[in-house]
Amino acid sequence: MSGTTSELARFFPIANEGAEVRSVAGWVRDGGTRQLSGFRPRAHIVVTWDEVSRAIVEAVAGECVVTDHLPTSAGALDQVTIIGDDPRALEIMFAAQQRGCAVTVIAAPDSPLVSEHARTTMVPPHIPFAEDMSVARTLATLVAVTSPVATVAEELTVLSTLVDEEVVACHPDREEVTNPARTLARTCTQGIPVHVGPARLTRLLAEISIARGVPALSATARQASAFQTNDVALSIVDWSDGDTGNGPEAEDLPAAGSPAVDIVTTLRCATRVAAATVMEVL
């Protein structure tokens, strides 16, 4: 089958997700995070204002402090990452820079955060024609600034390839029988999707769906039984086993137990959920 013009247009930003990760990997390889080498921050503070970004942080960088302002205690011993745009964002960036924090900015290409930042502030590159908010770019940048500099570029390069595989599997032109995103979209037409599985993963998946205009809920496996009701049409989407369907070959994955395994699963699932929201299922 062929995707509709509308599906293909809305899928275009999702198709860039692998490239977004590759771009961040190249940035790290070229020294974009060099100043973090050997730095052990007292705290990593993430300042953001939207629920998707908060969920990304919780999913892949759980040790961070997530807030919508710069704590008065933040200083030269701390790392600060600012995600997104808000009327307070520029003032927060300037304050963090003045206090000597190690600052990273994840924002749109035309954001004043990008044009006004200090030379020492870390800003990952933007790929051409990308949408302002990229889950992959945000996730990859967080991984880059919270992981050992020596290994993160290689891990992100592997991740980009696996995300590309997910994008190909979820392309609107792919037949439904082998298209996990279209299958997921059809499941979601049966009722409000309830993403069930690890709490940090399913909250992110639900927030991505909501941000893209599709109502969704999240629950742990233990909580799922509470959603069985005849009063509201719900559709359970079970991610409990971490299986993303057409997953990567075992030899392509990092060692079992590695944090990178969770990152791969998280971004592949996130890409699939985003792709499902563009599918027109009759």
Order of helices and strands: HHEHEEHEHHHHEHEEH
Average pLDDT level: 89
Overall 3D geometry? globular
Structural class: alpha/beta
Helix content: 40-55%
CATH C-level of the largest domain:
Alpha Beta
Beta-strand residue percentage = 5-15%
- Strand tally: 7
Order of strands in the sheet with most strands: 2-1-3-4
Write the layout of secondary structure elements.
Blueprint: H1 5-15, H2 17-29, E1 44-48, H3 51-60, E2 65-67, E3 79-83, H4 89-98, E4 102-106, H5 112-115, H6 135-146, H7 149-169, H8 180-188, E5 192-196, H9 199-211, E6 217-219, E7 234-238, H10 259-276
Please give a structural write-up:
There is one protein chain. Strands 2-1-3-4 form a 4-stranded parallel beta sheet, sandwiched between helices. It has helices at residues 5-15, 17-29, 51-60, 89-98, 112-115, 135-146, 149-169, 180-188, 199-211, 259-276, and strands at residues 44-48, 65-67, 79-83, 102-106, 192-196, 217-219, 234-238. It is 43% helix and 11% strand. Residues 244-260 have low confidence and may be disordered. Helix 2 (17-29) runs parallel beside helix 6 and helix 9 (199-211) runs parallel beside helix 10. The chain has 2 domains: 5-152, Glucose-6-phosphate isomerase like protein, domain 1 (Rossmann fold, 3-Layer(aba) Sandwich), CATH 3.40.50; 157-276, no CATH class. The chain starts with a helix and ends in a 6-residue tail after the last helix. The chain contains 10 helices and 7 strands. The protein is an alpha/beta fold.
Observed structural traits:
282 residues, Rossmann fold, alpha/beta, 11% strand, 2 domains
